[in-house]
Task: structure prediction
Amino acid sequence: MPLHPSRRSFLGAAAGTALALNLPAATAAAPRFAIGDKDFLLDGKPLQIRCGEMHFARVPREYWGHRLKAIKAMGLNTVCAYLFWNYHEWREGQYRWDGQRDAAEFCRLAQAEGLWVILRPGPYACAEWEMGGLPWWLLKQPGDAFLRSRAPAFVQPAQRWLKEVGRTLGPMQVTQGGPILMVQVENEYGFFGEDRDYMRLMRQAVLDAGFDVPLFQCNPTNAVPKTHIPELLSVANFGSDPERGFKALAAVQQGPLMCGEYYSGWFDTWGTPHKRGDNTRAIRDIDAMLKANGSFSLYMAHGGTTFGLWGGCDRPFRPDTTSYDYDAPISEAGWLGEKFSTYRECLSRHLAPGETLPAAPAHLPVMALPAFALSETAPVFANLPKAVIKDTSPRNIEQYDISRGLVAYSITLPPGPAGKLEAANARDLAWVYAGGKLVGTMDTRRRRFSVDLPARTQPTRVEILLYTIARVNFGVEIHDRKGLQGPVVFRTRDSMAEELTGWEIRAIDFGADGDLPPLRWQAKRLDGPAFWRGSFEVQERADTFLDMSSWGQGIVWINGRCLGRYWSIGPTQTMYLPGPWIKVGRNEVIVLDLTGPRASRIAGRTTPILDELHPERDLARPASTARPRLTGLEPVHAGQFAGGATTQDVKFEQPARGRQLCLEVVDSFDGKPHAAVAELALLGANGKPMNQSTWTIAYASSEEARKEDGSALNAINGQASDYWHTAYSDGLPTSGPARLIIDLGAVVDITGLRYTPRQGPDTVTGRIRRYRVYVGDWLVEQL
Result:
């Protein structure tokens, strides 16, 4: 077949490896799929990609076919599939593609349903997955800047991983009769860095792995120019304003327009309201993209569930819920409701000539389970392994070859006065016991790493039980080493701090699949952290939702399979239990509860609870008495932002030095007494955004917490799709200017800031017009 004239711009240059590898021209002359000047081309004819994301790791293998049928019935012609590196190589050099990890079988099933596949193999994925898909063992290497860089400590393992992907999935490419049309290189690297040579290195690794289909990269609209290289097609990720996204693409390349991730909803984090997508806007945007001859991938078409311990964590530290429902058109349990119908109706208007939509698959059966008791217990401390690690001062657990789980630290203190035990770091949550009694907690969400210890009249054993929830999956914080980290000191009022040395460490490492240790059971109720065991019996198998609302915080196993994490602070109060994982007859349920249940019973519901918050069930923390201390201070800068959703850089007249920065809002473009910030980055002495890994919110004048997640942390979490928004649901009048104060963790030099307004149409509230900026060592006082 002769070379189609519209293939010139990206065939080979973007990713057609025949030209990239200097093969004879005849070999590259007739690929089945190519990238032209304006269109994707399949067998020489334009193909408009209508894609939906589905992560096979988040869907029971038994249901892959059902969900793919739903994706096809919605009007999509392609499914986008992430590979999570750590899911397949949890231990270095040990690759797994069996069972739930059988990516090739997922591709075959997609092809059987008439769907093409876009493969996203990483090495970095994000996707609200543990460490963004990067394996934990990389963190055995020292340093906080080598991940996603050209450092050999990262590149060499990544190259090995991609070669393994090529070995496993290379035969599934369209060039070999399979469904894979395109392969993504890295993921949203422009949100992390701007090293184009790194992107070229990752591209070459994909080529060396044997992929000969077109390659591409994706970035949020604002970051498209940062890492664009002519060797890769760029696509833009956004949840609104497709016109602006497509303009960003047209500014850097000539080629088909595509949204790599269009957000149907959003993910949930523990302790914040359940997120919902704007369905009306989504249909309007999809309609506009298709009318503009654009392509898209819906993120998510079906979110599913982050089973096991694979849930990720938003920056700076906000763990994601086990439910990954995402408010997607296909629900967590595969249900097809009104949102699915509106997407199907929209997409049916854009079918290719002769194309028809199949009927939607039937609703899968669901059942209730009568409440059953968990009456046997196995205390955590009594079931720790005998193997002891001894160390002078605690280090991150990766140095001990521990991947994740429960880690117990113990030391004996001599008699002495009351004081404060302080650690350099504690990732993630820790319960501190003195003489067997709980005396306090450490919480990395609040950067609270100290606990008051009472006076001791005799030698006292101090035990610290640490629980790793999830590694951060986004930003520089992916260098997220876990554990109690020294030096650990004991500080009294009358003496200098004394470092505590000579620690004993025991760990229950849950490994890749949440493996349970051998447990010694007893038939009595206990206070404190413990495993609980019970069972239920059924005569048929169907989906159900385990109601965990009477429990505290921990992990659930069903018939030895790790179902996932729960936390009664919400918003999710149930756990999706797929029917195929239930046995006819007796089913054993084990629950790890770290804070103790209010009632040790579980029932199975026919509907989930996705939006019920209980902040009163969280770890206790002192009430905030923080107030701004700006009286007499002159702003280091005052100005006015431009309207619209575009990210804006502001340079200060003179560099400012301090530990804390306050953004004070004078007024907003809509004239209403609200303020919103999607992202606030600070520019350092080199004029580039600073590392945010140690930042915390020192003060926010208010934040919306009932109608939506408008928490102040959204302003520094690297996600432009969420935002800080001042409170509005309580109906109380606003008092004083809106203020946001960030603690940077250390005194630094600041030369400016980067402000990303709340995204969306011009009608959204809170976009800041006039503002003032203050910088100082301490801009907040405690009353």
